[in-house]
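Hey, I was hoping to borrow your eyes for a little while. I've been puzzling over a protein and I'd love to understand its fold better. The fold is given in discrete form, as structure tokens running alongside the sequence. I'd be grateful if you could look everything over and explain what you see. No rush at all, and the record is pasted right below.
>
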Amino acid sequence: MSFNHHHIKLAGTVTVGPKGQVVIPSDVRESMSIEPGDKLVALYFNDRKSVVFITEQQAQEYVNRMGEQFVQFKETLRGGEKQ
């Protein structure tokens, strides 16, 4: 996965607490519409040694898109079988 650096910005810093917890800066919470109690999905990119948080809704949208692409792929394969 590649990133366009124009869409990445320094949003602040966080401190890891003794239980491994971090506080997301308020401007980031506001821009992502994160409310107390919301669940986030943590994605770890081993090659970049980076952690990214996305909302459950974003994760579900990605899963839905992957499912649609899988259906299209299966249909493409079936089309190839008819020839």
Remarks:
- The helical segments are 26-32, 56-81.
